[in-house]
Amino acid sequence: MQFQPVFNSDRPIQIAGPCSAETEAQVLATAHGLKDQGIHLFRAGIWKPRTRPGAFEGVGTPGLKWLQRVKQETGLAVTTEVANAQHVYDCLKYGIDVLWIGARTTVNPFSVQEIADALEGADVPVLVKNPVNPDYKLWVGAIERLHKAGLRRIAAVHRGFSTYGDSKYRNLPRWQMAIDLMQEFPDLEIICDISHICGRRDILAETAQKAYDLNYDGLMVEVHPEPDQAWSDAAQQITPERYGEMIRGLMRRVASTNDPEYLARIENYRTEIDDIDEELIQLIARRMLLVREIGVVKKEKNVAVLQPERFRALREALHRRGEKNELSPEFIAMLLEAVHQESITQQERIMNAAESGKLKAKSGKWKAES
Ligand code: PEP
Ligand code: MN
Description:
This protein has 13 helices and eight strands. By secondary structure, it is an alpha/beta fold. An eight-stranded parallel beta barrel has the order 1-2-3-4-5-6-7-8, surrounded by six helices. Helix 3 runs parallel beside helix 5.
């Protein structure tokens, strides 16, 4: 798939505005507060898909006139969320400049197809948020449906993934998924929606800096004149003034440089890192060899593969070591999960190998010797 830029301005692109359009006065106050903060696109949700009923579900079509007024009074381009064909027709009728597909819509191929069909022949850029669940193919699939409908000005919006339980973030970023998207589609613009990733205003700035450091094409930020009074997503919204301060405080770093000193130093580090990676793989392979030996013994004695007590002890020890070595608990948990999962898979192969015959753990083959 090939794409054309949605935004022809210098990077990073700034998209900002309230989570929801609540009243005409609130929409206009936000837009006027933002118009001198260098934003490229003004956002406001008119139709709000909410996780649970009873929450504010948007003002609907009357809000489109408010966005038209924003355009007239401030000259800003405007965007809103569409979730079905009727929303698309209404937006096209009211001259909305850019549409976005929300996370709860991207997840549903029927809805995305309906939107894509409604957009056939239209020349309007569309932003596609990631689905609520970390399903890379579903995200790419939604983009593909729009592409097949003839749209080229498409950008992705990374807003993180739903989670259950305690986390610093409202939606886990899983940065690697956005990085994978950047690598697979180098001409697809990717915007980081830090507001929905964070869910709280105190960590917005550090997350915005992270997005800059990862070379996103821009940011989407929720801004409200009175954040605590917002009818939706109050905890993550900030005032236009605070927004301006945050953006001005971010460090822009160059994508790369040909400075020979930089190149030489980086080359040295990279050589060392490559050596370490080789050692890491060797070490993990040695560990797996032992795991397979244990598999042979467990099989002989008819003992279960998964030993919860042992796993608990291993996890505690690893977390302690991780802490001593400045490795985050999240990293240790992921590492442990990956290694443990592979160990279980390898032991299961041993356990399920043909009953008769001698097992060859050492050779790296799991089939029974005949
Ligand atoms: C929003 O942008 O206000 C919104 C509802 O976002 P998401 O679809 O990412 O939850
Ligand atoms: Mn929101």
